[in-house]
Amino acid sequence: MQTYPLSQLTEETLNTLITLHEVDGDLEAWRKMQMSLTQEERILLEYFKSDRHRYHLPIMNEATIWGRAIYPLLRLAEQGQVQAWASVPLKATYPTFELEGEADGALAPSVGGRIEPPYLIVHEAKRGINAPNPQFQLYGEMLAAAWLNWENSPNTEQEIFGCYTITDDWTFVRGVVGAIETEKPTLHIEFSPRYDGVWEAECIVQILKSIVAKYVNVST
C-alpha cells in the first residue's frame, strides 16, 4: 500500500484515489452558519482588528502571519474542551492508500492536554507564483481527519470542515466523506465565499464558532 505525503498531493493524484465532487456552496447557508459573539469576544475582536492594522502582513513570512492573523481568530472560537492547535500530525489508512503529514492547525478537543481527532482543519497556503494550489492538500488533510473521526464514530458519512488562508483571507470548505471502507472513497466539497481577515473578521469567528458548536452539541 502506497503512502502519500499530504504536502505533495495534487488534483491528479487525488482523482486516482477518490471520487471528488466540488461545488460552490449556498451563500445563504454560510450566512446562517454564524453564531453571535459574546461581549468579551467582541472586545477581543476589536483589539485584534485595531492591532492588525499595524502590520504589513503581505511581506511577512508564513509563521508570523499565522501567529498574528490566523491563530488569534481560532482562539476566539474555542468552546468547552475544543481548543486551537498548531502543527497537527495526521495519518490515515484507507483500504487502498495511506495519507500522512501535518496540518498547519486545527480546532479539536483536548483531553489531558492531548489532541483528540480533529474536525476542523486549517491550511495556510504558501505564497508566490509557483506556490501549489492549497485546496488539494487541504482535501487530503480533511480526508485524513475524517478517517480519524470515523474511527471514533463509524458513521456511513463523515462531515468534515476545513479552511485555507492566503495571507489573512479565509475560505471555508465543508466536506462529506463517504464510502470510507471501499477501494475508492468519495469526497463532496462545498466552498464558502472568501472572507477578508480584517473587515470580515467577525463573520470568520462566527462561522468558526458555529462549526465548533456542532461538535459541542453532539458531545453533550
What is the compact description of this entry?
With 220 residues, the chain is an alpha/beta fold. It has helices spanning 11-17, 27-32, 39-52, 62-76, 134-152, 201-219, and strands at residues 2-5, 19-24, 82-93, 97-111, 114-115, 120-124, 158-166, 169-178, 186-196. It has one domain (2-219).
Describe, in plain words, how this protein is organized in 3D.
The chain is α/β, with parallel strands linked by helices. The protein has one domain (2-219). The chain has 6 helices and 9 strands. It has helices spanning 11-17, 27-32, 39-52, 62-76, 134-152, 201-219; strands at residues 2-5, 19-24, 82-93, 97-111, 114-115, 120-124, 158-166, 169-178, 186-196. Strands 1, 2, 3, 4, 5, 6, 7, 8 and 9 form a 9-stranded mixed β-sheet that branches. Strand 7 (158-166) and strand 8 form a beta hairpin. Helix 3 runs antiparallel to helix 4. The longest helix is centred in the middle third of the chain and has 19 residues, at 134-152. It is globular, with a radius of gyration of 17 Å. The N and C termini lie far apart (38 Å). 36% of the residues are buried. The model has no long low-confidence stretch (mean pLDDT 88).
**N-to-C span:** 38 Å
Number of helices: 6
Strand content: 25-35%
What is the total tally of β strands?
A: 9
**Topology as a string of helices (H) and strands (E):** EHEHHHEEEEHEEEH
Q: What structural class should be given to the helix and strand makeup?
A: alpha/beta
- How many separate structural domains? 1
Helix content: 25-40%
